[in-house]
UniProtKB/TrEMBL annotation:
Lineage: Eukaryota, Viridiplantae, Streptophyta, Embryophyta, Tracheophyta
Top-level taxonomic group: Eukaryota
Name listed for the protein in its UniProt record: Retrotransposon gag domain-containing protein
């Protein structure tokens, strides 16, 4: 059984109609299977997989995060906003 490498993270891309929550879940599922994934690699692959015109991508480009925790806290803040907007539209 070959160990997964961080190369697999580059293949995780957010789909145009996919909620951010779904992208985060798919990314994290792949990331936990990679024992030797460096923090800079995890951060850059997460950002690279985001929709380039999305708010999270813009925020992560403007404000450099040093940890995955910081990246995820910013991303989850956007998930809450996305879901709040969606629930208000119902």
């Amino acid at each position: 059984d070959l160990e997964k490498t961080s190369d697999g993270l580059y293949e995780i891309l957010q789909h145009r109609v996919e909620p951010l929550r779904g992208y985060i879940a798919r990314f994290n599922q792949e990331k936990v299977a990679i024992p030797e994934c460096s923090i800079p690699t995890a951060i850059s692959t997460f950002k690279r997989g985001l929709l380039p015109d999305g708010d999270v991508y813009k925020e992560l480009t403007k404000y450099q995060c040093k940890t995955m925790e910081d990246v995820m806290s910013r991303a989850w803040a956007h998930v809450k906003w996305e879901e709040d907007v969606a629930s208000r539209a119902k």
